[in-house]
Amino acid sequence: MKVDIIGGGIIGLSSAYYLAKENISVTVFEKDKLYKKASFARSCGGLRCQFFTKENILMSRYSIDFIKNETSIAFNSNGYLMLFGEEQEEDFKYSTALQQELGATTKTLTPVELKAQYPWIFVDDIRNACYTSDGSEGWIDPYSLHNWFKDEAKKLGVKIDWMDGKLLTPKVHPYKEKYKCDKDYRITYSYDASIAVQIANKKLDNAGYAYTIAKGRKYFADSNFTYCEHKSDILHNNRMIAREVYLKAAKAYERDNRTEKDK
Hints:
Order of helices and strands: EHEEHEHEHEEHEEHHH
Number of helices: 8
Structural class: alpha/beta
CATH architecture of the largest domain: 3-Layer(aba) Sandwich
Mean pLDDT: 78
Distance between the termini: 23 Å
Radius of gyration: 21 Å
Number of strands: 9
CATH class of the largest domain: Alpha Beta
Helix content: 40-55%
CATH topology of the largest domain: Rossmann fold
């Protein structure tokens, strides 16, 4: 099986790494060899489990454990401190309970305890705080992690082609046969390494991939809208757009499956 990944940023290369570990033939296409516009280059590299959704917490726990124990990347275990006002009481109780339930080592502080531990913090408008002190949260250098994934992926046989992957479409690229994938599997602009693994193991087709991505984004948008205290117009619009895309992808997936069964 052959998979092409369009986008050689940190998610594209981590996807390639995991696919290659499953003995999948992978080629990564990246048009920006210096990564001047890559999002990972703009990241502060923070890693924490203090989130509001189960998926984010579990993915963070996995990522932190992986980076600490399976890579050579330095992990700066300075921890995270989150502050909550009185109007965020419900958010605080929900998120900390969920984090602890899922195995995160989040601790809570009252304003008095917070002031005793961090005397320089103004606590008059703070109702609660949560933090970690066991080295389970911190930050890394994103460039170093990207280079690690690139080097390890290449060791596993991943090929990197420095060209614009969008040119691979049959109507544009004159050498489409050279880069043809099995059943045209492509992870366009690579969003999630877990999706790459699903494609490898479950052999999702393009409609299945689009459906899986849309379903995840719909869930993420719904979660943001549900658990964010300030339900802004932006959150509402994002939720509506995600639902619309999800419905279209679901219909396409259902149509393709029905067509395949008819054959």
